Amino acid sequence: MKFWVGTTDSRWFEFLAQRHLDEVNFWQPSVRPAFENAPSGMPFVFKVKRPHNHIAGAGYFVARSVLPIELAWEIFGQKNGAASLAELRELLGPLAGRGAPLTQISCQVIANPVFFEERDWLSDPPGWSSNIVRGKMYRTEEPDGATIWAHVQPLLAHGIEVQGLSSNSSALVANDPPARYGDPILVRPRLGQGSFRVVVTEAYRRKCAITGESTLMALEAAHIVPYAEAGAHDVRNGLLLRADFHRLFDAGLVSVAPDLTIRVSPRIHEAWFNGKAYYRMDGQPLTVTPTRPEFRPDPDRLQWHLKNKFQS
Q1: Are 227 and 286 part of one and the same domain?
Q2: What range defines the domain where residue 281 resides?
Q3: Please, what's the largest Cα pairwise distance for the chain?
Q4: Are 231 and 285 found together in one domain?
Q5: CATH value at residue 39
Q6: Residue 136 contacts by C-beta under 8 Å, 6 or more apart in sequence?
Q7: Measuring CA to CA, which of 83, 151, 230, 258 is 20 to 30 A from 222?
Q8: Do 208 and 288 form a contact (C-beta atoms < 8 A)?
Q9: Are residues 208 and 176 in the same domain?
Q10: Domains of the chain: total
Q11: How far, in Å, CA of 22 to CA of 59, rounded?
């Protein structure tokens, strides 16, 4: 099994270690991916930078996305490891290097994060070089990886148990085939609100499912079955929609049929004497759908919305 050891600074770690969160944003200033093709559920280990140089926590990788700093704050808030947007910018300031300030960051969403007590930190992890800046991929089949994982795995498992997280939750992210990264993972990560938004955004290739709009700040992840009505933070319970369509969808004035055609309610015209821009889309197929079948909207949930929410 592969797992990633990523470097972070003490301020990010100490801020988040004081809170009990279902997910965190392990951000990095470089938009270039630190690793490629990692499956949802890959163990992700936190290594605090010098002067500590210790492995000090872990969680499970869910998804990666490059986001404007303001949007990262909107989605994750203090899960970014800062008390405010201004403080997040302060953390990023020294990392910008020469030239213009940072405007976007690489976000690695980590579910089920566990921050170890200092007595459980692992100092000077084997196989680590002083010139590693962002992180390193290890394998449990190799001696260095086996040593680190033997230390991390029981602490991570205990922390997840203490937090009451279950691998049988209905709100699970879809996994890649285990063969891509070796043995099956030990825990399938449960999505939080931020994870849900990022996973849905990437599944729809950062475009509105109905209109194809790609202005990221205007797009939102909609629940097909509302979260307040036992709808899961599950990619198959999500649609990426432009903000106005999100409001109409939640109000039952727009829906999507199980055959992925758009339905527009006559109530828009009856109540507000308007809606020409929307009625042109009635009966049309979705403009964007996920390329991966396991990420496409669940027909049963779409039928539920059509039956229980849509104002036909």
Answers
A1: yes
A2: 204-308
A3: 70
A4: yes
A5: 2.30.130.30
A6: 4, 5, 127, 128
A7: 83
A8: yes
A9: no
A10: 2
A11: 10
Per-residue pLDDT of the chain (312 residues; tens, 9 = 90+): 999 999 998 899 999 999 989 999 999 988 888 888 888 899 999 999 877 789 999 999 999 999 999 999 999 999 999 999 999 999 888 777 666 678 899 999 999 999 999 999 999 899 998 888 899 999 999 999 999 999 999 999 888 887 765 443 333 343 343 333 344 444 567 788 999 999 999 999 999 999 999 999 999 999 999 998 888 899 999 999 999 999 999 999 999 999 999 999 988 876 666 777 888 999 999 999 999 999 999 999 999 999 999 998
Q: 108 with 151, same domain?
A: yes
Residue 189 lies in a domain: no
CB 248 within 8 Å of CB 254: yes
Whether residue 278 contacts residue 254, with contact meaning beta carbons closer than 8 Å, is answered with: yes
Which tokens is 138 given? 């290890």
CA dihedral (33, 36, 40, 41) positive or negative: negative
Taking CA 284 as the corner, what is the angle to CA 281 and CA 288, rounded to the nearest 5 degrees? Answer: 95
Q: Which two tokens stand for residue 289?
A: 């759908």
pTM of the model: 0.86
Reference 114, options 158, 62, 150; nearest CA is 158
Q: Looking at the chain, how many residues does it have?
A: 312
Instruction: Looking at the structure, tell me whether residues 21 and 122 fall in a common domain.
Output: yes
- Amino acid sitting at position 236: R
Q: What is the DSSP string of 63-96?
A: EEEEEEHHHHHHHHGGGGSSSSHHHHHHHHGGGS
The answer to the question of residue 198 being in a domain is no
Distance CA(194)–CA(221), nearest Å, equals 10
